[in-house]
């Protein structure tokens, strides 16, 4: 494979993926990242500069993308506006980055015949009822609920259209909820950990019955690399680790691990249109690629994540107060 262009590589999952690639392969990497509020160059400071460089730029900028794609053997596309709550406050950046940005990359990849891996989410399938025995498969119809998931669904459709209409060599992956190091404190798990660490009370939307299917980011990174190495062109791979848990249960586990009483949190205004449950059936991916998650005990992954946030206060403290102030404006 050789040289990878990793978009969004200064964000949570992208940075974890870059470190995984540098550790487990001989590839070199160029990261293209706009360094929005969610991107942080510090996420890459431990990456070997001889094998990894960062270009600060926008995936929707055809000039920048046109300069970088020709040198790459493959594009791995993580860059996105990724937070549902933000997409409810202001959808515009989601349209620009997730839809126009993906289109811009696809056009450059088409011109140069570059292999393209698109990183997407299980949220494109909408939600399941809590009691529904079904889980999402690659055949589940698209039914996105939020501006975020609608723009990710649009980007998935663009990728498939470029494969069918123009013969672009693509793979796609739809993964469940990630947790682990470098996740922005706007997201559920790091928000609650850092609330406790700063003496704030954790905030649970509604009753906390909504279910998410948690996977450690290290397992997601390993699966994406496996798809790049041996995924079949045109295929969609669902990535999950059988990690379903409702939000109340996850919050109680965080409180317990941090030595707090299990009721030391506030119920706050629910998210409008809040998806009830996500659940991935990743069996086909496992069988085809021989990939298995290594974090099979959620409590172990959660304890590691709590340790990381406890040891890296300098990484998240500068943005914590502003993130909470922004939530405060919507009663969350
Ligand atoms: P994140 O918000 O932490 O990081 C996104 C990164 O993209 C940031 O570094 C940001 O600066 C960069 N970026 C944003 N707009 C850009 C633009 N226009 N041009 C260049 N760079 C830009 O997101 P994340 O949680 O790491 O998610 C990464 C990808 O994985 C996204 O495509 C997301 O949809 C997908 N995904 C996330 C999850 C999850 O649980 N977080 C689950 C499944 C799939
Ligand atoms: O303070 C909170 N309290 C709370 O109860 C926050 C921030 C969230 N929640 C709830 C909402 C969700 O049910 O926790 C659950 C998880 O919320 P998020 O971390 O915002 O994730 P989610 O909306 O499920 O989307 C995530 O997984 C799929 C990522 O942000 C997406 O990028 C990914 O596609």
Q: What does the model show?
A:
InterPro entries: dTDP_Gluc_deHydtase, NAD(P)-bd_dom, NAD(P)-bd_dom_sf. Keywords: Lyase, NAD. It catalyses: dTDP-alpha-D-glucose = dTDP-4-dehydro-6-deoxy-alpha-D-glucose + H2O. This is dTDP-glucose 4,6-dehydratase. Belongs to the NAD(P)-dependent epimerase/dehydratase family. dTDP-glucose dehydratase subfamily. With 332 residues, the chain is α/β, with parallel strands linked by helices. It folds into 2 domains: 201 residues, NAD(P)-binding Rossmann-like Domain (Rossmann fold), CATH 3.40.50; 92 residues, UDP-galactose 4-epimerase, domain 1, CATH 3.90.25.10. It is 42% helix and 17% strand. It is built from 11 helices and 12 strands. The strands form 3 sheets. The protein has a 7-stranded parallel beta sheet with strand order 3-2-1-4-5-6-10, sandwiched between helices. Helix 5 links the parallel strand 5 and strand 6. It is globular. The protein starts with a strand and ends with a helix. 49% of the residues are buried. The structure holds nicotinamide-adenine-dinucleotide (NAD) and thymidine-5'-diphospho-beta-D-xylose. Thymidine-5'-diphospho-beta-D-xylose (TDX) binds next to helix 6 and strand 8. Thymidine-5'-diphospho-beta-D-xylose binds next to helix 6 and strand 8.
């Amino acid at each position: 494979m050789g040289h990878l262009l990793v978009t969004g590589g200064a964000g949570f999952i992208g940075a974890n993926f870059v470190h995984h690639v540098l550790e487990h392969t001989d590839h070199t990497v160029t990261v293209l990242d706009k360094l929005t509020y969610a991107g942080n160059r510090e996420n890459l400071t431990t990456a070997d500069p001889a094998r990894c460089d960062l270009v600060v730029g926008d995936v929707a900028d055809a000039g920048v993308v046109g300069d970088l794609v020709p040198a790459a053997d493959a594009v791995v596309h993580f860059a996105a506006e990724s937070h549902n709550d933000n997409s409810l406050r202001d959808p515009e950046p989601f349209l620009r980055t997730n839809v126009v940005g993906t289109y811009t990359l696809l056009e450059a990849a088409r011109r140069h015949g570059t292999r393209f891996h698109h990183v997407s989410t299980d949220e494109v399938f909408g939600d399941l009822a809590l009691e529904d025995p079904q889980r999402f498969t690659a055949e589940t119809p698209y039914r996105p609920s939020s501006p975020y998931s609608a723009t990710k669904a649009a980007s998935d459709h663009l990728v498939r259209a470029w494969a069918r209409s123009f013969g672009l060599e693509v793979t796609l992956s739809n993964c469940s909820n990630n947790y682990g190091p470098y996740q922005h404190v706007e997201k559920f798990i790091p928000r609650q950990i850092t609330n406790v660490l700063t003496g704030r009370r954790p905030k649970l939307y509604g009753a906390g019955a909504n279910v998410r299917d948690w996977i450690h980011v290290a397992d997601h990174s390993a699966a994406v690399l496996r798809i790049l190495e041996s995924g079949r062109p045109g295929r969609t791979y669902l990535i999950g680790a059988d990690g379903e848990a409702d939000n109340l249960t996850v919050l109680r586990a965080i409180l317990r691990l941090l030595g707090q009483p299990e009721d030391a949190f506030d119920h706050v205004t629910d998210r409008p249109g809040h998806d009830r449950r996500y659940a991935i059936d990743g069996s086909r991916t496992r069988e085809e690629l021989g990939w298995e998650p290594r974090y099979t005990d959620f409590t172990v992954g959660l304890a590691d994540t709590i340790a990381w946030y406890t040891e890296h206060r300098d990484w998240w403290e500068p943005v914590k107060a502003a993130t909470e102030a922004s939530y405060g404006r919507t009663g969350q």
